[in-house]
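User: quick one
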Amino acid sequence: MDRSEIIRTVNSIFIERFEMEESDLTPEKKIIEDLQLDSLDLVDMIVGLQQKFGIMLRDNPEIRNVRTLEDVYDFFEKLAGEHPEIADKIK
Amino acid sequence: MILARSVAIYSATLLWALIFWSVFFLPVTAAFLLPAAKRRHRLRMFLLFFGLSTIRFAWRPFFRIDYEDRTEGFEGPGIVVADHRSAIDAFLVALPRRSAAQTVNGWPLKLPVLGPMARAAGYLNITAWDYDTLRARIEEVFSAGDPIISYPEGTRSESRKMNPFHSGIFRIAMELNVPVYMLCIAGNQHMPDRKFRFREFRNMKVRLLGPVTADEIRQCASAYALKMKVFRRMTDELASMDAELDHEETI
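Assistant: Done. Structure below.
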């Protein structure tokens, strides 16, 4: 699973669930400050990512450290490296 | 000058409060004898009259407030979302002339006279309650036919730029299937400031927009999507209102 596929999959959550424009989803965007997600929205984001990637994120402490979209891409790139089966689970 | 302005308007407000609550002391006391739902609705009516009359009688010498209703009828339950530049908003939200329960941080509920009144009127303490409790209390307000008024920025911005919105109230609008009205308040960014000083007296504009109907809300993919739709509409309207105020001041 390459990085461009991860970016496409992560961005699809923001487009479908939050009705964001693809052009707004640049890697440096801060999730809270720039995209204006609050704590309830973050729960929605994590639920969406869980469903999309077919994995549980609730107990993964690293997901709490993401600040920007790039951090989210990095997080899933690392996860996909450790768990190659994720590529088959993407919905 | 700041001190003189502040003393003048607080004196006028206090004097009007004394007159108002003296005149209505008996009816307000009687309202406390009513069953809970009726009592809350009746007290919300008194708070509405107090807000409207304060604007009309106590503040008239100091500034002008232009109110415009751009809805095609504002009735029934719903959520009114207001921008929040200053503490004066708690009075200005009376202008749509609907008795309503406001969402408040804890501190206004501790004010003398108004605090106990607001608590008894079913005002919604967003800092003390969890999501489910807040939702249940909002349903109670809706069952009386009243709307609620919410400030999704969470705190006063004291500037022309709105703070980001919290999503909770929009989630509740989606879950309870009620329309969202937008109350745009412009011109009041330093009236008063965060230290409750009146740095200036300026005319204000208050405009009720909407609603985002329950049907439109159902089509939103998430509370975030609804929140941002409302945020963008209000940002555009407030920019236009600020420009109108600036233009009027130069004439």
